[in-house]
Amino acid sequence: MKNIICAAAAAAAALLLGACYEPSPLYGRWADNTGNSITFISDGTFVAKINDKTDNPINYQGDYSVIENVLIFNYTVDSIDEGGTPSSYTIDTEWDIRGSILYCTWTADGLTRKLILYHTAK
């Protein structure tokens, strides 16, 4: 009898917690018509392709975190210094989603792009 009550309580707790879970609205692929895109993965990683000043794509990948309306991207690139050690960088940007449009500013490598990205895949 105790096993049945424990199993029922565990099932009820699982249903309650599952019903309260809400995935991040960022998950999925966001892109615009000029080739810029950011894909947010549920494990806390991202992949981005952002055009430079001459519209050549630069690929980024790393981890991201969200604190209220601030997105924090952490990524590592191989440095060209004499040690050849990887260099870590951080991009902090405010973000806003209106409907299926993500607004944020990408600032990296001396480039600042105001991005307006459409949610193209979940």
Give structural attributes:
122 residues; alpha+beta
Detail the topology: elements first, then pairings:
Elements: H1 2-20, E1 28-31, E2 37-40, E3 45-51, E4 57-67, E5 70-78, E6 86-98, E7 101-108, E8 111-121
Antiparallel strand pairs: 1-2, 1-8, 2-3, 3-4, 4-5, 5-6, 6-7, 7-8
Describe the structure.
The chain has 1 helix and 8 strands. A hairpin with a 2-residue loop joins strand 6 and strand 7. By secondary structure, it is α+β, with helices and mostly antiparallel strands. The protein has an 8-stranded antiparallel β-barrel.
How would a crystallographer describe the biggest sheet? 8 strands, antiparallel, barrel
Look at the helices and sheets and give the structural class: alpha+beta
User: Could you tell me the mean pLDDT?
Assistant: 84
Q: Termini separation (Å)?
A: 44 Å
Radius of gyration: 20 Å
- Number of E-type strands: 8
Order of helices and strands: HEEEEEEEE
Strand content: over 45%
Low-confidence stretches: none
Oligomer: single chain
Short description:
By secondary structure, the chain is an alpha+beta fold. It has one helix spanning 2-20, and strands at residues 28-31, 37-40, 45-51, 57-67, 70-78, 86-98, 101-108, 111-121.
